[in-house]
């Protein structure tokens, strides 16, 4: 591929996930993913970002700016230092922003991957640009983004860590150092545990969905228990934010019909806000697209 206007360069977006990194760019107001790289828990930030930079510079000798979205606590005022990275342990404390700046000689912005996804989703019309919306990802952990009138509310920088709000003091220990965190009860491992507790068997969430959909009683009960905890957390958030509504995404959101009624039951018991919970349509490009848009806006 090539660029007609190399002097100005393009806005690039990088979405680093637990399994893959996606790299794309905005050209002529269109965004597309042009390359993916494998990641994984042994992925080293310098190695991956060097490979990505070599690829970008081979395509675009002078990128206009680059956005990077990755999981964890991102110190944005420090230029993109990763303070805590649960899924990519070697990225803890990495100054991802400076690594990319040095390699690419271009402005770089780094943000949480959930926030980058939200920006991509807002600009794709998947999240309304009016109202106060909470975007929640239900997966191994629980990610969150607060969106007011199309803008992310950061607080002092680390807002949206809903997964680490305490729902049971003295509860299940969390890798974050706390215990009883919401994601220990409404994350993927919790869902698996609810099934194992009933049957003594360990199966994947995907198999649980198949079983529950075909009427299997323990699988349905496990989803009901999971939903209870989802509802408790959403009620806490509704009481704090009085949002227009919630959008949920992440791997477990697709099974919403299996846990929505038990979530709603808890929600109604614990807060009096309207239940406005929608599935956010999955978009395989939104994370990298949002990162590229952040680069264009902030750099
Ligand atoms: Zn935690």
Descriptive key words:
299 residues; alpha/beta; Nucleotidyltransferase, domain 5; five-stranded mixed beta sheet; globular; binds zinc ion
Could you explain how this protein is built, in words?
It is a single chain. The chain is of the alpha/beta class and 299 residues long. It has two domains: 11-118 and 284-298, Nucleotidyltransferase, domain 5 (2-Layer Sandwich), CATH 3.30.420; 128-279, ATPase, nucleotide binding domain (Nucleotidyltransferase, domain 5, 2-Layer Sandwich). It is 38% helix and 22% strand. The protein has helices at 45-59, 96-104, 113-123, 182-186, 188-199, 205-213, 217-241, 256-270, 286-298, and strands spanning 11-16, 20-27, 30-38, 65-70, 73-75, 81-84, 108-112, 132-138, 142-148, 151-152, 245-249, 277-279. The strands form three sheets. It has a five-stranded mixed beta sheet with strand order 3-2-1-4-7, sandwiched between helices. The chain has a five-stranded mixed beta sheet with strand order 10-9-8-11-12, with helices on both faces. Helix 8 links the parallel strand 11 (245-249) and strand 12 (277-279). Helix 3 (113-123) packs across helix 9 (286-298) and helix 7 (217-241) packs across helix 8. It is globular, with a radius of gyration of 20 Å. Bound molecules: zinc ion. Residues 164, 174, 176, 178, 181 line the site of zinc ion.
